[in-house]
Amino acid sequence: MKINRRHFLALGMGATAGTMLSPLPWKLTDDVSIWTQNWSWTPVPEIGEYYYTGGACTLCPGGCSLAVRKVGERVVKIEGAENSPINTGDLCGVGISATQLLYGPSRIEGPMVRSGKRGEGKWKSLSWEDAEALLAEKLGAASGSGVAALSATKTGSMAALIQRLLDTVGSDRFLTLPSIYDTMEQAMALTMGREAGESVGFDMENTDLILSLGSAVAEGWGSPVRMVKAAGTKKMIQVEPFLSTTASMADTWVPAKPGTEGVFALSVAAAMIQEKLYDHIFVSTATEGFEPFSAWLLENYTPKKAEAVTGVSPAMVKKVAVAFAGARRPVAVCGRGKGETPVSLAEALAVFALNALKGSVQRDGGLVKVGALPYAVATAEAEAMGEKLAALTEKGKTDLLMDWGTNPFYTLASSEKAKEALASIGTIVSFSPYMDETAAMADLILPDHMHLEKTQDVPVRAGLERATVTLTQPALAPVMDTKHTGDVLISVGGQLDGGGDAFGWDDYESYLEESCGEMWEALYDEGLWQGEIAWKKGLERILGTSQRFTFVIPEGPVYTPAEGAESSHPYTLVPSWSLRIASGAVADAPFTMKTIEDRVLTKGLSHVEMHPSTAKKAGLKDGDTATLATASGKATVKVTLFEGVMPGVVAMAAGLGHTAFDGFIGDKGASYTALSGTMVDPGTGFNCAWGARASLTKG
Amino acid sequence: MSLTGEKQTGREQTGSPGDSVKKGDSGLVALFFVVGLAASLAVGWIVFPKLLYSKSEQPFDFSHVTHADAVGDCDSCHFFRDDGTYAGVPTLAQCVECHEEVQGESEAEEIFVNEYVAEEKEVPWKVYSRQPDCVFFSHAAHVKAAEMECAECHGDIGESESLKPYEENRITGYSRDIWGQNIGGFKKNSWDRMKMDDCGACHKETMGSKGACFQCHK
Least packed by Cβ within 10 Å: which of A415, A628, B154, B213? Predict the structure, then answer.
């Protein structure tokens, strides 16, 4: 008998039968299916007891306080602090995503010096001692006036320290990114008087109607949580060319031509005067200059005259005037989008005048003065900031630039020319914890801790009704080999000629306590210091003189048209804003990218939203790829049709088009800032670009 | 007779061609079948579980019964925190309340005090009942609300004098106790197995329905 195929077949059949009758195939299937779900790269928090530490967020000027949830030494979640009067237990999506910024791929691991060509991305690590000595050497070698420093805050312990460093090397080029508050502070100085350090606020909690002249009330203007709550509960009139989330939440949406919100405000003021809807008693007893202002207004800005500029019908202007005047405590706010860009001084004066016409000045629900922050080590008021910033984007004027938290290669790169000028700066020093656009172009990086890893005062500039400072708190030991920039500056400053005395503190923490003065106790114990409500206190209030207002006829243009010829650039590009897309110095964290809608960003391309009639005129259809070009640059975009955009206007989300940080946000979308160009306001010297003329060609 | 008419030998006398081959052959075929059957059954029921599971010991031995006698019930060490979360396996801080120094005479305790307490190192216990990360399980719902006994899911571990070796599925990385000691998935007691279907069966019995997906897989 030979053993043949049949026997093996039988063996096979037996084996099959036996296998089927055993648990093997079923158990293996179950196990393999579980195995396919075991993704080792998915981080899973340790199992253990949860506990909270405090802190403050610095990702936007909003001033929110944090409750940082931890398991063991791992931060697992960021929440809003329950007892914060500012964010009352809530937090925006960007603030919540800071856990990914903390542990994520954009972190710089330690001090580095450039080893290849600028922007090549080749680095050499060095010790903190060497890095600080190198910075001291470079500062010593540079000429005083050639040294400039950009600071994330205008006031506060860090700003004062940076100013001190600049003083020591003989430079007065202390720079900050100007925002709406800078313009409003200047407007306040002219109309209400301003002591050094005083700022502008709005008593949102007590207003009953918000007239927003282009402000993204529900998308990040002011302090986000506070404003979203206001948008949801107060009556609101939104004036902007785009049906944004804010506009959709408003009681009335007034589409005015881009950039003309100031003119619209003046036409509403004119209508109020024409119809005698303003607060006579307040105007006659507490203001000055009303007669000439009123005459100027009625000559130039009647609703009928304004229509040619704003495109808003006189009937609508009257409707808004009646609504504003009819409210008990209305307030008018300005600052397009999140207020990250200043408006012209003329526009701010127009909005202030509107508030004054209803007596909404220095009283509940209105535009209010916010007291100076009582820092014991104060910052000097920076003069001529507009000119100083302009010098930064002119070739040959800067030998050494230090960036602390402003990321100018993204935030100030408003054109190819500006970017080139920045890139020609001799030495670029970055203190960024993240590999942002500026760090990528830096020669020396001395990475700061990120906000969850350090103790630092955060002076809040977000239109709050009273002076506020929060305190960041280290939730954990630093994840990377980073060092508090405060400590770095004290060490470097001490190494400079004449620096020994100026930087006598042992470390930043002792300096911090000293600089915070009377605020330190509250800051240290509660993480928050707030001043008194200025308009309710003091001699001025008792004497009834706190509410004085001077109507000022603006000198500069209230509306600055965008550069460019209509023939070559027939459309107007404006930015759109989102609470989900960080548009400042620090880009979105990876998972925040996932919340961006398909009509804003797909397959790495920014979308431009436009009215169907605009698309038809441009020969474009929904979903087409096109080249968007302005005088400052060009970008490939995708077309999305949306009837909520004024005809002739093209809206693109701000905050995209990053070229650094990490692979999740890097090289995705186009940067609105890079296309926006410059509109210098003669009143303040700041760049007040609100948009740009644009062309769109298919492909 | 062949087609050409020539005489054929052998086959015509002894019957159809395959007869003798088939008779002996069928026995061999059957044998091969049986061998295949038996071997695969043995592999499936005996060899497979031996290969599938790895075995390792706990960092050191621990006697539940000694501690239950000394300290009290399960919840003396396995308790609910103030916020309602379940503390699970005790941390070093709890054990140190008594074991700052060696209390008894066992070698296990000596290892514990010298290698863990002295070094302030948490003991890396291998947890038999650890469910996958996709499972949300609330002790509060089962112990406080449903008033279940610990043993119903965890067995009589409280009465053990030592900790059994930890067996881990090499493919999934989970404890053998989840599927159950029996490779076929057959169980006698409620705590023998704790796969989703076992949770579901108990829920069906006590609550009338297995529950919705998102209750446990959030």
Answer: B213
